[in-house]
User: What shape does this take?
Amino acid sequence: MILPRIFGKNRGVLGINERNIGHIYQENPRKLLKLVDDKLTTKDLLKSVNIPFPEVYGIFRAVHEIKNLEKVLKRDEFVIKPSNGAGGKGIVVIKGRSDDGWILANGGIIQRMEIEKHCLEVLEGVYSMDGNPSPVYFESLIKSHPALEKVAFEGVPDVRIIVYRGVPVMAMVRLPTRQSSGKANLHKGALGAGIKLSEGTTVHAICKDRSIDVHPDTGASLLEVEIPFWNDILVIASKSYEAVGLGYLGVDIVIDERLGPLVLELNARPGLSIQNANMSGLKRRLEVLEKMDLGRLDFDERVALAVEFDSTDWEAV
Amino acid sequence: MKKLTILIVVALLLMGMLIVSAHQETSYHSMDADCDGAESDDGDDDYDGDSGSDNDGDSESDTGGEEGSDAGDDDADGDTYVSDDGDDVRSGTSGGLATTESADGDAESDADDSDTESDTDTDDDTGSGTIDEGSVGSDTGGDEGSDADDDDADGAGSDTSGDAMESDTDDDTDSGDDEDDDGDAEEGGSDEGDDDTESDTDDEESDTEDSEELEESETTTPNASITKEPETSSILLIHDGSVSCELVRLMGNYATALGIPVFEKRIDFDSRYLHDMDIGAMGDVGYVVLIARDVSGLNVLIDYVVSDRSLDGKKMIISSDIGEGMLKQHSLVLQKAASPESLILTDLDDSDLVWDALLSAESQGRHVEDELDSEDVDYTTVSDYDLVTTPAHRLVVTDAMLTASESKIPLEALKLVLILPFAATVIAIFRNVIGVRMYGVFGPAIMSIAFLSSGLVTGLILFAILLAAGLFSRKSIDRLNLMIVPRLAILLTLCCIVMAVIITVGIKMGNYTLAKTAVFPLLVMSTIVENFMKAVADKGLFDALKICLGTIVAAVTCFFVVSLSTLQAIVMTHPEVLVLVLGFNVLLGRWKGLRLVEYFRFSELRKG
Assistant: This one.
């Protein structure tokens, strides 16, 4: 049409229109979407295929259950999350206890009363995607793996992998910055560093869709960073497809210093900036897999396939 | 499956195109620049030659009136012509009138000089300087001048206020501002006015001016005109902003110079329907002349003739900017509703030629068609024969329009409904092809429709005020620590309060436009303000404002699309184009290309 003529050919970039029409609508049936929209449901499914995830300390589904908060509040470190949240809304990170309350991730103090009020708000649906009431749960606080300490500022990096019909097709690690205030959301200012699937090292990095080489806060190089447990991560990503059955899936994985890779959440509409982070388009990778019959492969074979394709730069076949 | 959908889409598209192309020879006119209402100085310049020195006086008092307030304008319109226009300000409280007059009073000082200058010509000239905005202004000019002048001017002045108030007792309303002698002056004024027109028709300058006065006196005393000019039938001129007020006034002057009474009625954003027209007071209406850029003019005329049959069988001339084919198609509704003696359609650009032709035809007792032929003006006539020859499926639309109008559904409202899909389509393009972020999908679309009824500038100002109100109240609402839904309810309440205050202040200042048009836009915009506040909470003020900008850009673009007169004419005459809209949206919904913003988002990737 007209736009390519003005702006030049589109080199394998997957746009929102094509992602939605070509992949999400086809691969992700509507009835499966609710499996990933609710994080507690996702955790149940992950459990059924033995995928590790952060330990859940307690779940509160109704207002009257809030009075049982005591047993959770005995712990010093935890994260409060709405089960139905989106974009990191409603998440409170508690990293320690002080004399007059709990210490927040940013160093502030939160009282017991405020924690209760936050839980009630979550139950009311203030932080929900659709505004409906949502359960609130308490989860263990992840301690970032030392290998990624230098490239993260006050927060836990997470690895995002796009999985197409069970085959990992593209990956990046999202690194918190001062601007993103410790959160790993790209639109809040976190960095995205693309990872070569076949090697598990970062190849390119972006901040707000523009290339960047060093971490703006720590000064560490963002290239050639090796991701620990890489093969395990690929296997977990591939197995997540079996858990929920979504053909176009974004898997978010954190790497805990003691427990290794844990699945944080699954995403049915993963963003497209991962292409910029990898300096590579998704289109061709998806086209290569689209033509193949992947039904009979198990997760190990799918990971092997991804590594093989990636080492030849997805040109083969 | 895929092939089937494509097949259906293509079939739909073809069908729509066939229907549209088969029955219209549309000449697409570009939309004129908006020239609503503003009395342009150009109009003055054009006619300087005609009306000579006293025109200076006019124009100055004009501007004085404008500086005063809008109310001054309204009033002036009302007083220049007939009482039916007075209902624009009919709900005017005495407070409103007071401001109006004082505003006009401000104009005095401006008008004074010019008036006294033109006094040298004829006393009557000064009196007629009153005609438009500066009526009260020249009033005082007259006071300072000679006695004769005084009488005359006062006469006009008191008429003005009488009309504006639509009260029968002029003396009562005026007594507060003007002195007792008003009452006498009025009689004297109207008498003199009558005399003048009869006597000095040869003097061009006083002529044009006097004719105005004549109209006024006619309005107040309809009998006078009938007794005076029994042989000439009058002309009802209905127009919208496509002709400037100045031009309309001069057209009126020209007509009255020839002894043809003209009654003027303006349709505007705020009064897109005609009502309370006192046809009886207009004597024998010979011709109805409609000058309107888009279909609105025809729509309101149809609505009028359907509800009030007093215009049935009249001769009608319509000048419009919409394509000839569609204009003819749409005027079939008028033909069927009122069965006019003759119905002539011309282009908007030819409206002045048509007016000239009409006047000379009237004054010389000839046929307008012959005059138009001799002036070489393109025109089309519509008659009952066209109703017979029109294909049945076209008549279905005509009948539907007529039925709607007869069922008290204003055709203008119908137009808004029919044009809404186009607005939604524009929004769809903005989102899926350009990738603009905005609040909601139909919010901006409906907002553009709201702009249609309120006017673009008014609408944008309203929106800005509401956003500002929301932003300023946010801090204090946040402090209350409320749950989200009651918080939004509070926000909506605040919006309504702000709106009510604006409307009330507007009425106090004599501006009724807001009161008439603000309700619908308010409802639409409050929902957008709600979305805006949500976005401020979620994404921060900067992002929220960016999305807000996207919303406004989309809504304004939408507004320009839905106000295309050709498009409006198409949906009114060929509602089946909505099938095309369906087909287009199916295609748009299947379009996989990169959005415009994505070309920038992935610019580095596409280069590397």
